[in-house]
Structures are given as C-alpha cells and as structure tokens.
Amino acid sequence: MNALHNGTHRLGLRIYFEDTDAGGIVYHANYLRYAERGRSEALRALGMPHAEMIATHGRMFVVRRANIDYERPARLDDALIVATRIITIAAATVTLDQTVWRDNLALVRIALVLACVDAASGRAARLPAPMRTALERMRMDGIADGRGAVEGT
Fold this sequence. Notes:
Oligomer: single chain
Largest sheet: 6 strands, antiparallel
Structural class: alpha+beta
Number of strands: 6
Distance between the termini: 10 Å
C-alpha cells in the first residue's frame, strides 16, 4: 500500500529479521527510518520527490524536531502502515503527525517538525509557492474529510 487519500498518506511495509533485535522486536531507532520512508513517499505522491525539490527549487527538508511515543512493539513479520498527515504549514516549517499502525492498533506516534532549507547553504528558507500549494492541498484534504486521529487502514 502506498496511497494518498483524504489528506493522509499511507505506506505499507513488512518487518524483516534485519529490523529486529534478538527477541524479534523492532529496534526503536528503526521507527525513524519507517517515518522517513512514509514522508518521502508522501512527497512523491504530491509530485515533489526530494530530488526534484532540490533540482527545481534548490530546497529540501530536514528534521528539526521529533517527539516519539512508543506505545506497543512491532515484531518480526508484522505488516505495518505508516500514516502521515500535515498538521500545520508555516513560512519555512511543516508540522506532521506520523503514526505506525498494525491491525488498527497504534504502535508508535511521531510529532515531527520539518524545516525547509536551501540545499546549497543548509540555511532556513521559505517554502517555494509550488511546494506550499501541494502541501496545503494535502492538509486541506484532511481537514475537509473531518478526520482527527487517523486509523491504520
């Protein structure tokens, strides 16, 4: 599953042996990797893959802040969904809610702030209008849908 619908992007993934510790439980830092994949695919679904943002606008996103709540463990061979929603868009930042789900149970919740930076200098930069428009469209689709917390399926 890799789909954008009603303001939420959902990415399906499977837990492999390499993702787990000796007990078959997903190593905590791997959730950040799953969230990164979810964000990258959400941007691609909006027509803004990272390489194109850099080539066309000279801009890229970097993680400024991540607050993570680990509620339940994922285990070897689990099928997960990473749901990504845009909460707010400012001049040079985007706030996201990302949740990792298994069978409609939230496993991990990540509140994330991305900063838009100039790709050459690494300094904070305003979101270019086309990027802002695409992000705003995704955010508004979620608001129009009336969804609060997003379920995993």
